[in-house]
Amino acid sequence: MAEETLKTAAAASEAPVAAAEVAVIPEAEKAEATVVCEKDGPPEPEAAVEEPVKVVEEEKEKITESASFKEESNVAGELPDPQKKALDELKQLVQEALNKHEFTAPPAPVKEEKPAEEKAAKAVEEEGKACDETAAKEESTPEPETVVVESKEEKAVPPTAETSEPAAECKEEEKSTPAPPAPAAEVPEPVKEVTEVVEKVETCVDEDGAKKIEAIQETIVAVATSSEPSKTEEAEQVAPPETATEDTPAAPPPPPEEVSIWGIPLLADERSDVVLLKFLRARDFKVKEAFSMLKSVVAWRKEFGIESLLEEDLGTEQEKVVYMHGVDKEGHPVCYNAYGEYQNKELYNATFSDEEKRTKFLRWRIQFLEKSIRKLDFSPDGICTIVQVNDLKNSPGPFKRELRQATNQALQLLQDNYPEFVARQVFINVPWWYLAFYKMINPFFTQRTKSKFVFAGPSKTAETLFKYIAPELVPVQYGGLSREGEQEFTSSDTVTEEIIKPATKHTIEFPAPVTCTFVWEARVVGYEVTYGAEYVPAAEDGYTVIIQKSRKITATADEPVICGSFKCGEPGKVVLTFDNQTSKKKKVLYRSKTKVSSD
């Protein structure tokens, strides 16, 4: 919720990035203009400059004249074909991920395989080095007795040959030496087999040449024989799971995992389509990007512990700062953010003075948002977005370092994990410097984002809120009639609005039947008027009863809402008088009802 409020402040530092996302001049129009120029021939320099300028001016007119944001339909059958296709593709990706348990599968087993392979390779290398060392020791102390070997291959080698012939014969033996692995399988110790092969080679070569060839053969055979035990060890380690699988060969595949977000199970019913459409709209209906965002949100919610967070008690200090109150004229819940409350130094220090307190505030903000979202209706025809009202009166501003750190952190989390939950952003009591700042960064926002923003200065706050929220649901501090505690009127009692022209008296009459108690309440937006009430009987010889003497209503009055009642004993009418002596028009809000007396 606070994310849209802080976007204007964050945009100043991220202006270069945001600028790339806003296309003031459509690329298609640029391409069409260049193609036409190439076909017609070489354009004149002045004509080439005038065409983009016209396009820019037309685009600016479109932006300034664009209507306010209107929510798209969440009914799958009413979506345009490209959006419907994107939704189907995203649902297919989600189903595949659920079947493979990609949302909750731990990545740990995959990472553990690499160290095991590295250990096995190191073990093979160490065994090979050990074999090389033992063979080298045997080379340094050759014994004449090792010439006798009980092998058939020794008889085939002639001992009285020239130095060139033994070399050739030794090469043949090098090719034929890998053949005796069959008897090697019977020998339990591979190192003995290596020494025997070396002895065979010694009988057929001279001293200098034999030593060189022996070293080569020892390394080759040692690696081959040392790798065999590692393979057998790996086979022994893998053997238990194989036997386990053989015990249950017909085990069925695991069922698809169940993943819920904001209390809505994915792909369980049509409410899931509404959730997926939020991710698609947040990523301009780019399916892969929307799917990646969905997976990251599910992972973040698990890491942050959202379900357990809902049960935590994080205090009530922030209830006056952020609170839900009523709905707008379209049924969206309205969230009010009164940042002026942080002018209270005790509250400010208790919220932002250190990292621990800022973390608690962040968790409270996420908890508040989660509870608000759980109350939304995610059916295709339901209301699943919220209206934000941001009161900037007496706001500390972006110059408080602690506040800036907390808001930036909250902004990042809310932007990444709560897409498309804001229907409209209304900024009230906006100071002049904020409007000037917004005009500077306005070009860097997308048209969709800008269409959600509404700004109103202190004198236009109530009037602006009444455009979107009924006066009976607007809090009294913002010009409405909604108050806490037990009141004579409820939100179901509608309010009537009338305009008081400048320098005129405006009267409102209510008929009063016999034997009843007449009750009313009224409020003047803009104050600075004189108010009075009287009862006028229907009989010509009756006397007018003054219910309320004329008094001036000011902005500093303790009771901004005028309340009155009168017990009628005869037919007549109650007349309310408002005298506006200023040069500006005023708006009066009022409602009334009668209580039948039992007397």
From TrEMBL:
Keywords of the record: Cell cycle, Cell division, Cytoplasm, Lipid-binding, Membrane, Transport
Top-level taxon of the source organism: Eukaryota
Stored InterPro entries: CRAL-TRIO_dom, CRAL-TRIO_dom_sf, CRAL/TRIO_N_dom, CRAL/TRIO_N_dom_sf, GOLD_dom, GOLD_dom_sf, PATL, PATL1-6_C_GOLD
Primary localisation category: cytoplasm
Natural source organism: Lactuca saligna (Willowleaf lettuce)
Region of interest called Disordered, as start-end residue ranges on this chain: 38-84, 102-191, 224-258
Name this protein carries in UniProt: CRAL-TRIO domain-containing protein
Transport is among the record's keywords: yes
GO biological process per UniProt: cell division
Biological classification of the source: Eukaryota, Viridiplantae, Streptophyta, Embryophyta, Tracheophyta
UniProt feature, compositional bias: Basic and acidic residues: 51-73, 110-140
GO terms for cellular component: cytoplasm; membrane
Low complexity composition bias: residue spans: 239-249
Keyword Nucleotide-binding appears in the UniProt entry: no
Domain GOLD as annotated: residue spans: 492-594
GO molecular function, one term: lipid binding
Similarity comment: Belongs to the patellin family.
Subcellular location: Cytoplasm; Membrane
Domain CRAL-TRIO, residue spans: 311-486
